[in-house]
Design goal:
This protein has one domain: SGNH hydrolase (Rossmann fold). The chain has a five-stranded mixed sheet with strand order 3-6-7-8-11. Strands 1-2 form a two-stranded antiparallel ribbon. Strands 4-5 form a two-stranded parallel ribbon. The protein is of the alpha/beta class and 381 residues long. Helix content is 41%, strand content 10%.
């Protein structure tokens, strides 16, 4: 076992042996020529070999969360409409030309599946090390990444494994669940006795350590998302109505106090990523500000084709915020007219706009910096 900062990661020898055994059973022998084709990605003509995704419900609908929805704690069984294909990383993967990204727990341990990219994300995943049997924290997902990269080292030459990792993109989206836990489930938490900067510092330091660890594992292209404006989500607004008669809610239906805490986290994360890019001159780490993107849509809903910025498409109670999406059959008829799908998650229509903005700077400019995702994809490592 090895420690670095707040991260703890290890790879038991038994896992390595199991991976090797499985690959032998499947009869997979990969030549340098085969791996070279994958690395330069003749499948899609890009310079990206694969996409590896880590995160929370912003990247996983529950397919990669053990025993979900039996062991869930968000009052919503369907955090997205249909499948992971409606979420931001999968929409970006389509633009890159990658279509075979599988949930980590849906794979059978073959090298082919690792080469196709994996989604390690888990609904309710947190940055703080609070993972349980039903979902995986940031540290737990990093250990799964380590296992997968070890499989590459076992089956490929060291140079091929390194080049494959360097030409892949690692996509991180965390933080939302930490703030949900703070504001809705830990009202007596000592964290609330501190200010927004204190809590953000704890979270951002762990995210920075995670990106450092990925860099040491030869990752050179990393996308890191900020947290969306949680203060505008149906559940947060509903809770504010219950506790303060809605006095904290502004004209757009957002709780300013909650958003102020989120803004501090995003600001600090952005600054740390700038520092990491300066420190690692051969790496390209992109910060994507989904907060400003969604707030732009909320401020100008008609311009972007939305009618409802406050209520969940799939939920019960005032603005669909008392109980989340327990069945997709209860969803509204036109999800594309809603900003919010359920208690805390945007609709596919919003994610599609964010994906296009992240890719091309249109229709919302400067979401991702210092590069667009398109530029990141076409940058040589």
């Amino acid at each position: 076992m090895r420690k670095r900062g707040s991260l703890v990661y290890s790879l038991p020898g038994v896992v390595m042996l199991m991976c090797k055994f499985i690959s032998i059973v499947h009869g997979q022998q990969y030549t340098e020529k085969t791996v070279s084709k994958v690395t330069f990605n003749e499948r899609n003509g890009s310079l990206v070999s694969a996409l590896f995704v880590l995160g929370d419900s912003s990247v996983d609908c529950g397919d990669n969360t053990l025993f979900y929805p039996l062991l869930h704690g968000r009052l919503s069984l369907h955090p997205c409409n249909g499948s992971d294909a409606t979420l931001l990383p999968q929409l970006i993967a389509e633009k890159i030309g990658l279509t075979s990204i599988r949930p980590f727990y849906a794979q059978n341990g073959s090298l082919t599946e690792v080469l196709g990219g994996l989604n390690f994300g888990s609904t309710q995943a947190t940055i703080m090390n609070q993972g349980s049997f039903s979902h995986q924290s940031l540290n737990q997902q990093l250990r799964q990444v380590s296992e997968s990269l070890q499989l590459l080292q076992l089956q490929l030459s060291e140079n091929s494994a390194t080049e494959f990792t360097k030409s892949s993109i690692f996509f991180l989206s965390f933080g939302k669940e930490d703030y949900i836990d703070l504001f809705l489930h830990n009202s007596s938490s000592p964290m609330l006795n501190h200010d927004a900067q204190y809590f953000a510092t704890i979270l951002v330091n762990q995210m920075t350590n995670a990106m450092r660890y990925l860099y040491e594992a030869n990752a050179r292209k990393i996308i890191c998302l900020g947290v969306l404006p949680l203060g505008c989500t149906p559940r947060i607004a509903w809770e504010s109505n219950q506790t303060s008669n809605g006095d904290d809610i502004n004209g757009n239906g957002c709780v300013d106090n909650v958003n102020d805490w989120i803004l501090e986290y995003n600001r600090m994360l952005d600054e740390h990523i700038v520092q990491l890019n300066a420190e690692f001159s051969d790496a390209h780490i992109v910060f994507c500000d989904v907060y400003s993107g969604i707030l732009e849509i909320i401020n100008k809903p008609r311009f972007y084709g939305f009618e409802d910025t406050k209520s969940a498409c799939c939920g019960l109670g005032l603005n669909g915020a008392m109980l989340g999406c327990i069945s997709t059959e209860m969803a509204c008829n036109q999800a594309s007219s809603h900003v919010w799908w359920d208690l805390y998650n945007p609709t596919q229509a919003v994610n599609s706009i964010l994906a296009e903005a992240a890719w091309s700077n249109q229709p919302i400019p400067d979401i991702c910096r210092p590069l667009t995702i398109h530029d990141l994809v076409n940058t040589k490592t």
